[in-house]
Amino acid sequence: MVYVFLLSKENLDLSKEEVLSLLDVTRYRLINNLLFLETDNIDEANRLSYTKRIYRLLFETTFGDLFSDIKNFDWEPIYKKNFCVRFYRLEKSMKRISESKLGELIWNQLSTPKVNLKDPETLIEFFSTNKRIYVTRLIMEIKHDFESRRAHKRPEQHPTALDPRLARALINLCGARGEVMDPFCGAGGILIEAGLMGLRPVGYDLYDEMLRRARVNLDFFGIRDYRLFNGDALSIKKRYDFVVTDLPYGLNTSIWVSEDGRNKKISLKQDGKNEKIKNLENFYFRFLRNLRRILGKRAVVLFPHYVKYRELVKKAGFNIKKEFSQFVHKSLTRKILVLS
User: Fold this and answer.
1) How far apart are CA 231 and CA 25, in angstroms?
2) Which of 157, 159, 293, 330 has its CA 20 to 30 A from that of 149?
3) Residues 155-185: pLDDT tens digits?
4) Phi, psi at residue 127, to the nearest 5°?
5) pTM of the model
6) Is 131 exposed, middle or buried (0-12, 13-18, 19+ CB in 10 A)?
7) pLDDT for res 251
């Protein structure tokens, strides 16, 4: 069956890849912000964060054939209780077609038609481009209350926490099933989304205070099946199939590393910018080298743009499957890498 995903335009490339990774599909068509793909199973699609709606594709046609194709289509099998029609132009230069005219044509093909304009059981939506019209029926509307989970609204806050919508997308990019691990979990932003998606979150952090905050936040959102460990991301030994993390990268901060079983604090404040970046890159490489040893399937890792992240991941033995950028402010663009 062919489904149509109405994607957010906030980051269209990321929106598209989130769907493809979660549903494990490689063949697709992208028309404006409509993603067309054929699959037998969309049961997990409600996990998606950058998809607004999912439709079943009924048929596609041209402006010249539209009315005759509506008359020749069998509407009875897809009609439930009542219906409503909406028409959208994907390119604003295209002419509009009267929704009432389209509704009248469908009405005439039904045995016991009823119209409900406010809350229809059967919502038929037409999407037009310069050359084609795509006729769909709404299957699923995806709504997540990301606003209530933003960092400043959690019981315990963290100044560099990811937006919950992005955190969820990263987990989907990873294609995570079962257990997902964040080696720099902080106050638990990624773990919260993983838990709400029905996954088993595992978090590591060197700071007991961060683990306390993560525990409070996870409990607040009703997540129970989680595990938190006080540990160094550079020396994790347990194997995990799926890893998702936002690396520590502030140039005005300090990082902890483990040498010979002892924790050592490197202050980035005391060094010049070039030396700070060099220290970060050394830290990242050591983390990536350990990640290479423990990763079972796939990882999604966020880097700051100002480090040589491609060189580091390749030197550590990873393949870069996908790469995305997310602008944060003039001094920081996140680089999102899918690694295997």
Assistant:
1) 36
2) 330
3) 998 767 899 999 999 999 999 999 999 999 9
4) -120, 125
5) 0.89
6) exposed
7) 44
Alpha carbon distance, N-terminus to C-terminus of the chain: 30
Give the whole-angstrom CA distance, residue 1 versus residue 17. 20
Domains of the chain: 2-141 (3.30.2130.30), 147-339 (3.40.50.150)
Distance CA 145, CA 149 (A): 7
Q: Are 60 and 126 in contact (CB under 8 A)?
A: no
Q: And the tokens for 172?
A: 């989907």
